Amino acid sequence: MSANSSTLGQRLWQGPVCAGWKQDMEGALYHLANCVLLLGFMGGSGVYGCFYLFGFLGTGYVCYVLWGWFNACGLDIVIWNFLLAMACLLQLAHLVYRLRKDTLPEEFDLLYKTLCVPLQVPMQAYKEIVRCCEEQVLTLATEQTYAVEGETPINRLSLLLSGRVRVSQDGQFLHYIFPYQFMDSPEWESLPPSEEGVFQVTLTAETPCSYISWPRKSLHLLLAKERYISRLFSVLLGYDISEKLYALNEKLFAKFGLCFDIRLPSLYHVLGSAASDAGPESEKEDEEVHEPAPAPPQAMPTPVQHMPPCSPLPAATHPPAQPSRARMSRPDSDGLASRIPLQSYSQVMSTGQAPLAPIHTPEL
Question: Who's near 189: CB < 8 A, 6+ residues apart?
Fold first, then answer.
């Protein structure tokens, strides 16, 4: 054992046992192969980094094969480098197959970049969502209806990809739906999974539109199975409904510039009918309010008489009644009086609380 260790030590510390060093350098293929391998090992990570790495390594091993065949004339050099080059080629083929397998249609790829990339949604989760809608893109022609008020059942959830859709109720325009917005998010959130219902609005395509649609039952099963996807849809639907509410909020306002806050799309029907019913009464009371009051009689000047001093009056048994509190003035009260009847306004003020919503509002 000691003899073997001493022999190994001598070989390490002594010079090489070569009979003589070659005076000429190797061929250009040898040096080219080493340079290509150096560039290959500088590759990064990820799919495209692997493309860079195995592409340069394969090229370097091919250069070694040519050097071993033409210059070194060594069969072992040719065989080993050929095997390494084939391994790099197979790895590149596997990467190309994975990329083609992960490729989505153009519409779904653009949808992923627009909605999911800012939220850092994994591609695997997005594929589950796309698989649920069967990767089908549906179309609507101009003036074709997606849903009819009171007739179309709520059995799907759709997302607009291109075009513009008009939303109306009772023939009156409410708001528009633009690309990458849900077409029926309020109906989806307002209806439990176990119940059935119909649309309360009419959706009509103003331009040629394309959209994707998820069947209601299939999407509910996916959301129940995948918690991450359920949270993702909750965020997207909540944002979409808030945008629609803000669009509706701009449709209802008073003359004095105070925007009323609408929390439900169905509130429009109640507020519109209440405003139309109270129209004649508010006009009559408006005339009474604006009728000028008669001027008080002008006091005549009287001579001042000096009265003898009198004894102070005894204290009153009951304190005098305090004057009634005057109604607080509000900006542009004339405009407010033309919209809100005085009787209902006085009832609200007598309770000492502010109304949760306007009692009478103008028609949209």
Answer: 237, 241
